[in-house]
Amino acid sequence: MKEFRLEIVTPDKTVYSGEVESLIVPAYDGYLGVMANHAPLLCTIKTGIVFIKKEKTEELLCTGGGFLETAKNKTTLLVDSCEKPGEIDLQRAQEAITRAKDRLKAPKPGLDIDRAQAALSRAMNRLKVSGKA
Amino acid sequence: MIQNIRQIKRKIRSVNNIKKITRAMEMVSAAKLRKVQDKLYAIRPYADKMKTLLGDLTENVKDLNYPLFAPRETVKKQIFIAISSDKGLCGSFNANIYRLTQRFLAENHNTSLITIGKKITDYSAKQESTILARYTYLPVSISFNEIRQMINPVVEAFESGKVDKVSILYTEFVNAVKYIPKIYPFLPIQQAEKKGPSKETKSGYGYIYEPGPDVILGKLIPRYVETAFYRILLESMSSEHAARMAAMRNATDSAQELIDTLTLVYNKARQATITRELIDIVGGAEALK
After folding, report:
1. How close B253 gets to chain A, by Cα (Å)?
2. Labelling B273: which of A20, A74, B206, B257 has CA 20 to 30 A away?
3. What pLDDT is attached to residue B260?
4. Given this structure, which CATH class describes domain A89-130?
C-alpha cells in the first residue's frame, strides 16, 4: 500500500515521525481516516485514540486535543499530549479521575467546569487506551 | 619579609577557594542549561509547525478579520514585556536587557512595562517606570495554565483596543556561546510573508476545513500565542544559563591566572629571603675570621 509521511508533535517532544499507510484520528465530529494522497485538510483533534497502520501492524496512541494538517502527502498532528500505551501512568490517571469526579459532584463556586470535564475525559481516555493494548 | 610571604600565601589560598566556587557554579549552570535546552529543543518544532499552520490558514482565509492580526494605524499605547533572569553573575546578560529596556522606554512614550525576572523588576522599580505587572522566580516547568494567566490580560487589553502593540524583549538562544537580545513584535501577530508562485498551487488544491476556518482559527490562535510565549521564556532561560556558564568559566580562568602570578611573586620573595639569610650567615662567618 502507498505510504505517506506522518509527524506527531507535542510541546514536550516529537512523538512520531515516519512513513505510515493509514491513520485514524478523533476529529471534530467523529473519527476520521487519512490515507496516502488525501486532499489538503485542516481539522481539529479531540481527546481520543489515534490508530496508525503500517505493514499490517497497528499502533495505538492516546492523544489530547490539537490540530491536524495534511497536504502534499504529509500529515502533521499538533497535539497537547500524545502517549504510547506503555508510557501511560495508570495511577496518575486513576487519581485524576477521582479528583475530577469529586469536583464535578460537589462544585465549588469559581470551578472551571469545562476544565474539570476535560481533565476527566483525558484521564478516562488514558485508561481506555492502556486497557486496549 | 616573612610577613609579606605569609600574606601572599594567604592570598593564593583565598583565590584558590574562589576558583573552586566559580568552577562549581559553572558546572551547576551547565547542568541546568542542559535541562532547559532539552525543553527548548522539544518545543521549537511544535512552535514552528504551529506557525506554518497559522500561516497556511491565514493565507487561505479571505478577508481575515480577526483583531489579533490587524495592525493598528496609530499606536497610542503599548505594552513592553522585558524578560531578565532572577539571579545575577551572568555577565552582560541582564545589562543588555536593562539597556534595551531603557532605550525602548525613551523612544516610545505611553508604554506600560511588564517585567519577568527579579533583576529587571528591581531595576525598573529603581528607574520609577510604570510597571503593569511583575513576575519573579518562574519555575522551569511552567504549565500552560500559568502561562495563560500571564498573557490573557495582555491579549484581552489588545483585543479591546486599550493597547495597540505588544513587544517582548528577550534573549534568543542560538547555541551555548551565542545568545542575542531581541525585541519581538508579539501582537498584532505577524502574518507570514505572502509566497508568490507557490500560493497558486496551494489555493489550487483548496483546503478542506473541519470545522470551518473561523472556528479553527479561534482555537489555534490562543494556542499559538501561548506556545510562542512559552518558547520565548525557554529561550531566555537557556540563554541565562549559557551566559552564567561563560561568565563563570571566565572567572575560573582569571582566578587561575591570578594564582599563577601570585605563585611567581611568592617564589621570588621566598628566594629573596633565603638569599638574604645566606648573605647574613656568610657575612657573619667572614667577620669571625
Report:
1. 37
2. B257
3. 96
4. mainly alpha
- Give domain B24-246's CATH architecture: 3-Layer(aba) Sandwich (3.40)
End-to-end, the C-alpha distance of chain B in Å comes to: 29
- Nearest alpha-carbon partner for B255 in B7, B20, B3, B4: B20
Q: Using one digit for the tens of pLDDT, what is the confidence trace for B45-58?
A: 999 988 888 887 87
Helices (H) and strands (E) in chain B, counts: 6, 6
pLDDT digits (tens, 9 = 90+) for B203-238: 445 778 888 888 888 888 888 999 999 999 999 999
Contact A75, A5 (CB under 8 A): yes
Class of domain A4-83: mainly beta
Chain position carrying cell 538562544:
B173
Catalytic annotation on B90? yes
% of chain B residues with pLDDT over 70? 93
Residue A27: list chain B partners with CB under 8 A: 210
Q: What is the pLDDT of residue B62?
A: 65
Q: Please state the domain extents for chain B.
A: 24-246
Q: What is the pTM of this model?
A: 0.85
How many beta carbons lie within 10 A of that of residue A20, not counting itself? 20
A12 contact B CB<8A: yes
Pairing of strands A4-9, A74-79: parallel
d(CA B137, CA B170): 16
The angle that helices B213-288 and B144-159 make with each other, rounded to 10 degrees, is 120
Of B49, B56, B220, the CB nearest to A9: B49
- Judged by average pLDDT, the poorest of A79-88, B6-15, B64-73, B121-130 is B64-73
